[in-house]
Design goal:
With 372 residues, this protein is α/β, with parallel strands linked by helices. The chain contains 12 helices and 16 strands. The mean pLDDT is 96. Bound molecules: flavin-adenine dinucleotide.
């Protein structure tokens, strides 16, 4: 049987970067993934010349110079800037809340006028907010709440804003400038050629086996390597012995349309209560509607996103950061700490919402301490 220094379970960003670093330091690595593709959740699939973000739209953004210098070794990033649009019953608003939004909402022209309008509406809530609705109104006023927050949030959580706790919304950034650059990060963009190509570049020359579920053949795999880096779900590793960690889920409905332009923007949020989807992603606009040779694409692909309840066995998307799940995670973490020769990492291994840049930083950090 072949012997590896590291068996890396999961070919997402975390696993791939650890494998790259270990390989470059002379360690022999095997990467396995239970899916039939590399890249984990950032996987993009080319359809009609368009890179479709199969597990949800991914926009890279970071202020971390080290992460940026690292990742740009494996991809050139285009200058895509995330500027989502809100559609409230056919009225279009610029996001995040900024002077374009306020002008459209109230006809105000100056920052003073906008600030005064918000201030006047915030006064409606007196004392401590008791729920998310009161919290949102106390931060930005009723008009913005009703048109841009209420429906979207209720669809996301499957509950009335009055029944949601106020702490879910701690801040609601209000920009008194004409700035709809959502992330406002120093570096932002989409890898030219797609995320899959970027991951393939990271994994170049490293042995990868797809359609392999580590947990189904754990003993066999453990015998093949000195150490394991596990980026799957921590509760699955322990066979859910303490119960399931919960996730919030998203369902995507993809459609190929025989027209070049559906909504003129990568992301449009539907902020009313009646429209069942939360947003529509039009994938081609992440790459300005062009194929890799700079040609205009005749068709377009859209994904309607529906927030859905998560049930065990569904694709895990967002960890639920409430007390119950936090306590359960800590118990699993204590079990993990007792395991020998295994590193738990990444969004599922650490049950943590990680943006891509944070996952890269985390993988580099562990590689630095682990690989001497
Ligand atoms: P994953 O990508 O989940 O990789 C884990 C891999 O392990 C998977 O391929 C899985 O198949 C494999 N695996 C699991 N169990 C096993 C097993 N038993 N055997 C073998 N293989 C296994 N970040 C941003 O910076 N910008 C964004 O715009 C953004 N948008 C997002 C949108 C959504 C809907 C979601 C859910 C996340 C988003 N993120 C975004 C976060 C980003 O997806 C993560 O930071 C990143 O994908 C995490 O990488 P990872 O390697 O930890 O996990």
């Amino acid at each position: 049987m072949e012997n590896y220094d590291y068996l890396i379970v999961g070919s997402g960003l975390y696993g791939s970067i650890f494998a790259r670093e270990a390989t470059d330091k002379g360690y022999k690595c095997l990467v396995i993934d239970k899916r039939d593709n590399v890249g984990g959740n950032i996987y993009t699939e080319k359809v009609e010349g368009i890179n479709v973000h199969k597990y949800g739209a991914h926009i890279f953004h970071t202020n971390n110079q080290k992460v940026w210098d690292y990742i740009t070794q494996y991809a050139t990033f285009n200058r895509f800037t995330n500027s989502p649009v809100a559609n409230y019953k056919g009225e279009l608003y610029s996001l995040p809340f900024n002077m374009y939004t306020f002008n459209k909402m109230w006809g105000v022209v100056t920052p003073e006028e906008a600030a005064a309008k918000i201030e006047e509406q915030r006064k409606e809530i007196k004392g401590e907010p008791h729920n998310l609705e009161e919290q949102a109104i106390s931060l930005v006023g009723r008009d913005i709440y009703e048109k841009l927050i209420k429906g979207y949030t209720e669809k996301q959580w499957g509950r009335d804003c009055k029944d949601l706790p106020s702490f879910i919304i701690k801040r609601l950034p209000v920009r008194l400038t004409f700035d709809n650059n959502y992330f406002n990060a120093l570096y932002q963009g989409i890898p030219v050629g797609g995320y899959t190509k970027m991951i393939e570049n990271i994994l170049e020359g490293i042995e990868v086996r797809l359609n392999e579920d580590y947990l189904e053949k754990k003993h066999e795999y453990d015998a093949m390597a000195t150490k394991v880096v596990y980026t799957g779900a921590i509760d699955a590793y322990f066979n859910y012995s303490l119960g399931n960690l919960e996730y919030r889920s998203v369902r995507f409905e993809n459609e190929i349309l025989d027209k070049p332009n559906f909504q003129g923007n990568a992301a449009v949020n539907y902020t009313d209560c009646e429209t069942p989807w939360t947003r529509i992603i039009e994938h081609k606009w992440f790459e300005f509607g062009k194929d890799e040779y700079g040609n205009d694409l005749p068709k377009t692909i859209i994904s309607r996103e529906y927030s859905s309840e998560w049930n065990p066995g569904d694709e895990p998307y967002y960890p639920v950061n409430d007390e119950k799940n936090g306590v359960l995670y800590k118990k699993y973490r204590a079990l993990a700490d007792k395991e020998k020769n295994i590193i738990f990492g990444g969004r599922l291994g650490e049950y943590k919402y990680y943006d891509m840049d944070a996952v890269i930083a985390s993988a580099l950090h562990i590689a630095e301490s682990e690989l001497k």
